[in-house]
Design a protein that fits this description.
It is built from four helices and no strands. With 74 residues, it is mainly α. The relative contact order is 0.12.
């Protein structure tokens, strides 16, 4: 089972992170479409920049894990 999951993501952490972000965005979009006020009070607007920075860091770390040349740099 675990091998099938890894094959689905082509053994790439970057692809996994990208697909996870797309899945999360799709779920939030559907929920926001069903009830537009659902997130208005629960998610402060200041969280978007924090999410963008954390998302970028996670993506960069995942990319560096796969790239032998970047991993071997001191």
């Amino acid at each position: 089972m675990w091998d099938r999951i890894k094959r689905f993501f082509k053994r790439s952490e970057t692809i996994f992170v990208a697909r996870l972000q797309m899945f999360g965005a799709a779920v939030i979009t559907v929920l926001a479409t069903l009830d537009p006020n659902m997130f208005a009070d629960s998610i402060p607007t200041g969280w978007l920049p924090i999410y963008m920075v954390v998302s970028g860091l996670v993506t960069e770390i995942a990319r560096r894990l796969r790239d032998e040349e970047l991993r071997n740099r001191s």
